[in-house]
Amino acid sequence: MRVFVTGGSGLTGPAVVAELIAAGHTVTALARSDAAAARLEALGAVPHRGSLDDLDSLRRGAEAAEGVLHMAYGGDFSDLDDMMRRDRTAIETLGAPLAGSGRPLVVTSGTLVMPAGRETTEEDEPDLSGFAAFRVAGERACLDLTARGVRASVVRLAPTVHGPGDHGFIGMLVATARRTGVSAYVGDGGNRWPAVHRLDAAVLFRLALEEAPAGSVLHGVAESGVPLRSIARTIARGLGLPALSLTPEQASTHFPSPFMATVYGFDGPVSSSRTQELLGWSPVHPTLLEDLEHGDYLAPPVS
User: Fold this and answer.
1) Cα(55)–Cα(74) distance, rounded to whole angstroms?
2) How far is it, in rounded angstroms, from Cα 190 to Cα 227?
3) Spatial contact of 292 and 298, defined as CB atoms under 8 Å apart
4) Which of 24, 38, 118, 246 gets the most CB atoms within 10 Å of its CB?
5) CA 90 to chain centre
6) Distance (Å, rounded) from C-alpha 156 to C-alpha 126?
7) Is 303 exposed, middle or buried (0-12, 13-18, 19+ CB in 10 A)?
């Protein structure tokens, strides 16, 4: 399959590109810069110069493809309405050339859109009042394309997609612990975070492109919920620091922003049982705590 990918040079993207190429697919990937183009070429992909705001470039990429995988997301988090508009427009642009063809479009979202406090499934509706609700517009734009003959599906990734070189949420936790001298969690730390290894996520994206039925909502989750207390204590042991419980008020100033404090206090366990059954996806790579203990998260920073 000729696949057009956005976000192929980010954190998760290179693993996905490599997985697709290893499975025999041909990958053309959006590149905003010379550095991104060089990284994609090193993986064996063909760079396609453009950006999410360059709609002509997106359209050309999708027109030449037999399948599209949209992982890129960005913008100014102080203007969530603009971020939603930008993502929705990109998805509609990528989907238009696929209309009536039955070709696949896979769009990325996150499990943080789901309701808090209980283990949710792929059949549950997202929380439109939650702090991650800005991702829902993109999900709907994707799934709406099924009515136009596109084999559209959504992959909701766990907030922690872990693996070497990760500077996402867990990387930020480690950096905050180094900076403050304590590894902190909010309240009793019993709130649960889903997690998935980057290489397992890459397999799921490939399977979604190859096999997911139109209208599928998939959960990219290997562990349904790892307590933040366990994460913080593992970081504390590895860095030789104390682990500390913070009130929500204390967390708002301890972590890089009040938004991040909210994220680190979120209880959002998620099941991927239906996804695994539907696509035969079986995560096999290390767990999050194994990666924290044996991976590169706690290695001394390079000066």
Assistant:
1) 15
2) 5
3) yes
4) 246
5) 17
6) 11
7) exposed
Task: Give the mean pLDDT per block of 10 residues along the chain (303 residues).
Answer: 96 96 98 95 97 95 98 81 93 98 98 97 96 94 98 97 93 96 98 98 98 98 98 98 97 94 96 98 98 93 71
Residue with tokens 């283990």: 119
Give me the domains of the chain, ranges plus CATH numbers.
Answer: 2-160+195-223 (3.40.50.720), 166-194+225-269+286-294 (3.90.25)
The answer to whether 239 and 175 are in contact (CB under 8 A) is no
H helices of the chain, where?
13-22, 34-43, 55-63, 80-95, 136-144, 169-180, 198-211, 228-239, 248-254, 258-264, 273-279, 288-294
129 burial type by CB count under 10 A (0-12 exposed, 13-18 middle, 19+ buried): exposed
Question: From CA 131, how far away is CA 262, in angstroms rounded?
Answer: 8
- 162 vs 221: CA distance, rounded Å: 11
The C-alpha angle with vertex 204 and arms to 198 and 207, in degrees rounded to 5, equals 145
Q: Which residue type is seen at 267?
A: D
pTM of the predicted model, to two decimals? 0.96
Q: Which two tokens stand for residue 238?
A: 């590895």
